[in-house]
Amino acid sequence: MESLIQDPHDGVCEVPFDLLVTNPRNVRRMYLKVKELADSIARVGLLQNLVVVRSHDESGREVFVIKAGERRYRAIKKLIAEGRWTGGVTCLIAPESDGDLINVAENTAREGVPVWHEGRRFVELLDAGMTQDELANALGCSRAYISYARNVAEGIHPDLIARLDRINSDTITARVLRQLARLKTLDDEPDLERQERLLEHITKARDFAKKTPKKYKSQKWLSGRLDLLSALAEEYPAETARVLRAAIRFVRSQESTLTL
User: Fold this and answer.
1) Rounded to an integer, what distance in angstroms lies between the CA atom of residue 213 and that of residue 228?
2) What global pTM score does this model have?
3) For the chain, what are the domain ranges?
4) What is the pLDDT of residues 153-181, one digit of tens each?
């Protein structure tokens, strides 16, 4: 059978869905919120590849056993049944040797790639069998950065990642990304509603900080925005609250200079 790999450097290809098979040795038996994941994939696409290994079925046909991503596989299966998905599934084909896997990792380095995209690829490589040390050495970065990127990729809801892709990634600080990734539901899934609300509030606060020096017009105008920042600081603790309180202290320190 002709190889399906389209790019021999990074091992990513599109695999026909009917050639994907689940791993019988996978210890996980319950997959939660498959419907929600299917709806998300239908909206924004498959943001993280499945990790597969080559194998053969009883008839000798080449198949691809899912090593990581069975919940995504089940979500796509649901979309196909509903007529909402056509075509294949992008997969990272895990190489047969660790040396080949390191070569794959080295080819993931791209300048200007947002950390949430890097993190998704790190997850794929770790799922394929690399250790954090091997991945860090191959990419020339620290283990701490690998962990940070992975947490961001796994912790931020796919719908919000699609929104982040539409804005300048340089404007989103590591502190904000960490805070977003910590907002989880009770079953440890990314909490889209809280994450969207936090990003919206931080964006408003940042816009306020940029505009305020040019708009010191009245005590009433300033007080309204101080109320907004104070409310945000009460709702969002930890790093976000510290940033907002610092902004409040700065603006209050300028009150005496206002022209009323």
Assistant:
1) 17
2) 0.59
3) 1-94
4) 999 998 999 888 887 666 778 888 998 99
